[in-house]
Amino acid sequence: MARADGRLSHDLMPDEKAPQDECGVFGVWAPGEEVAKLTYYGLYALQHRGQEAAGIATSDGRSLLVYKDVGLVSQVFDESSLASLRGHLAVGHCRYSTTGRNSWENAQPTLGGTEDQTVALAHNGNLVNTSQLRDRLVEIHGGDLRNAPGEVRRGNTTDTALVTGLLTADPDLSLEAAAMEVLPTLRGAFSLVFCDEQTLYAARDPQGVRPLVLGRLERGWVVSSETSGLDIVGASFVREVEPGELIAIDQNGLRSQRFAETDRKGCVFEYVYLARPDTTLNGRGVYESRVEMGRTLAREHPVDADMVMPTPESGTPAAIGYAEASGIPYGNGLVKNAYVGRTFIAPSQTIRQLGIRLKLNPLREVIRGKRLIVVDDSIVRGNTQRALVRMLREAGAAEVHVRISSPPVRWPCFYGIDFATRAELIATGLGVEDIRQSIGADSLGYISHEGMVAATLQPRDQLCTACFSGDYPIELPVAEQLGKDVLELEFSGGEVPTSPPERHTPLRERGAVDVDGVRLGSHGGAADAVSRP
């Protein structure tokens, strides 16, 4: 689908399973400003982080109102809905589901509590101790989640709803005091923006896996997943929300508390692909990181060629860096259709066979007879690159050399990115030469792990590289307690089904195939990925 930052996502082919961005969170405390509209534009700048649902909660000091729905930010909100969201503080969210199905019930911000203790909460990331948090909430409410107030009782199956429920479980605690008790019990990745009627809060997990920044308005404060969210509303960057920090903003100003010591493990894939190129992460510009990855690629995997070109648009910065370091001219060999975006009409088999041609078209005059270096940020299953190489050859390319600005993706993420299952990842069990043959390229080169990390200018021990290395910095629970559907059974009548529903059936039983009729994999679900070869 087309992305809000102008890039084209990995979803270049029908039914291609690609890395999906997690979520975007935004909050503003600004008396006298149109906080709902500021939040709307903030979410617009963060739309690339989640395209399934969007929502905004506002408070006028007396009551909280939440408006949310399934769809893009521009589809969910209009002038009338934004006008109804009045107040001096707001919390916003754009969602891609990493725990809980995509549904209206699971859209955020989540609303919870009672008339005397209310909270609206937005979450970017993914918790790995969801089952333990659920058990704790069950115990508090007499053994049944349906006794819990808020959205858990109404069928919300996200880890976010559990956190919201825990924050308001003790009516004798203020929201701030409850947060200082609950936040240390959360395990995994979480950048939270939440509020009650009076105060805006922001918190980040001790590892700082997902980004969260603080900005200043003339008459208030802003928190955002990325600095691009600050830029769009005219807020000046102040600093990051520190890992393990809780910030509170109200009429008395800003105050900060530590709920855990910092053990920084920022997600390296934010630098590779997830974050907008105009964002700054921990002092390092994302665009410059990607350009440097391209320069490193050129040094590590040189090849004689006539032109360097990107896979639009995610490979563009790295392709610019490769061309700069290699001295080979940069060019555009593909044109994308800017109007092919989210569609609610399933492609027919005939259209499915067209695959990548729905979204990209070759510039034959530019390609014909040329030796091409095609730069992209990652290979997941390989279907996109396979189709792309075929298209370029059909357009007359003499050679096609593929260069990737990240190492082979071999492991799933449990901290807020939805990858293909491990069995579907082409690099699982295959060497670089095998992958080259699979996609049909003349040569294939991945950046080294060391080269990728160096381009971020971050210390190696302060980055999470689990999807490349299998080294998970936050301990994972047993396989049965992993996966985005871990809470779905709570509202399925209390019985575990003897066979999983269709969408969870292993691929070998479904007989799923890609556009070329090639079977996709022999296992399903990421829950047991870390225990499989």
Automatic annotation (TrEMBL):
<dbReference type="GO" id="GO:0004044">
    <property type="term" value="F:amidophosphoribosyltransferase activity"/>
</dbReference>
<comment type="similarity">
    <text>In the C-terminal section; belongs to the purine/pyrimidine phosphoribosyltransferase family.</text>
</comment>
<keyword id="KW-0315">Glutamine amidotransferase</keyword>
<comment type="function">
    <text>Catalyzes the formation of phosphoribosylamine from phosphoribosylpyrophosphate (PRPP) and glutamine.</text>
</comment>
<feature type="binding site">
    <location>
        <position position="377"/>
    </location>
    <ligand>
        <name>Mg(2+)</name>
    </ligand>
</feature>
<dbReference type="InterPro" id="IPR005854">
    <property type="entry name" value="PurF"/>
</dbReference>
<feature type="binding site">
    <location>
        <position position="314"/>
    </location>
    <ligand>
        <name>Mg(2+)</name>
    </ligand>
</feature>
<dbReference type="InterPro" id="IPR029055">
    <property type="entry name" value="Ntn_hydrolases_N"/>
</dbReference>
<dbReference type="InterPro" id="IPR035584">
    <property type="entry name" value="PurF_N"/>
</dbReference>
<keyword id="KW-0411">Iron-sulfur</keyword>
<dbReference type="Pfam" id="PF13522">
    <property type="entry name" value="GATase_6"/>
</dbReference>
<feature type="binding site">
    <location>
        <position position="467"/>
    </location>
    <ligand>
        <name>[4Fe-4S] cluster</name>
    </ligand>
</feature>
<feature type="binding site">
    <location>
        <position position="464"/>
    </location>
    <ligand>
        <name>[4Fe-4S] cluster</name>
    </ligand>
</feature>
<feature type="binding site">
    <location>
        <position position="267"/>
    </location>
    <ligand>
        <name>[4Fe-4S] cluster</name>
    </ligand>
</feature>
<feature type="domain" description="Glutamine amidotransferase type-2">
    <location>
        <begin position="23"/>
        <end position="252"/>
    </location>
</feature>
<feature type="binding site">
    <location>
        <position position="376"/>
    </location>
    <ligand>
        <name>Mg(2+)</name>
    </ligand>
</feature>
<keyword id="KW-0460">Magnesium</keyword>
<dbReference type="InterPro" id="IPR000836">
    <property type="entry name" value="PRTase_dom"/>
</dbReference>
<keyword id="KW-0408">Iron</keyword>
<feature type="binding site">
    <location>
        <position position="413"/>
    </location>
    <ligand>
        <name>[4Fe-4S] cluster</name>
    </ligand>
</feature>
<dbReference type="InterPro" id="IPR017932">
    <property type="entry name" value="GATase_2_dom"/>
</dbReference>
<keyword id="KW-0658">Purine biosynthesis</keyword>
<keyword id="KW-0808">Transferase</keyword>
<feature type="region of interest" description="Disordered">
    <location>
        <begin position="492"/>
        <end position="533"/>
    </location>
</feature>
<protein>
    <recommendedName>
        <fullName>Amidophosphoribosyltransferase</fullName>
        <ecNumber>2.4.2.14</ecNumber>
    </recommendedName>
</protein>
<keyword id="KW-0004">4Fe-4S</keyword>
<dbReference type="InterPro" id="IPR029057">
    <property type="entry name" value="PRTase-like"/>
</dbReference>
<keyword id="KW-0479">Metal-binding</keyword>
<keyword id="KW-0328">Glycosyltransferase</keyword>
<comment type="pathway">
    <text>Purine metabolism; IMP biosynthesis via de novo pathway; N(1)-(5-phospho-D-ribosyl)glycinamide from 5-phospho-alpha-D-ribose 1-diphosphate: step 1/2.</text>
</comment>
<feature type="compositionally biased region" description="Basic and acidic residues">
    <location>
        <begin position="501"/>
        <end position="517"/>
    </location>
</feature>
<feature type="active site" description="Nucleophile">
    <location>
        <position position="23"/>
    </location>
</feature>
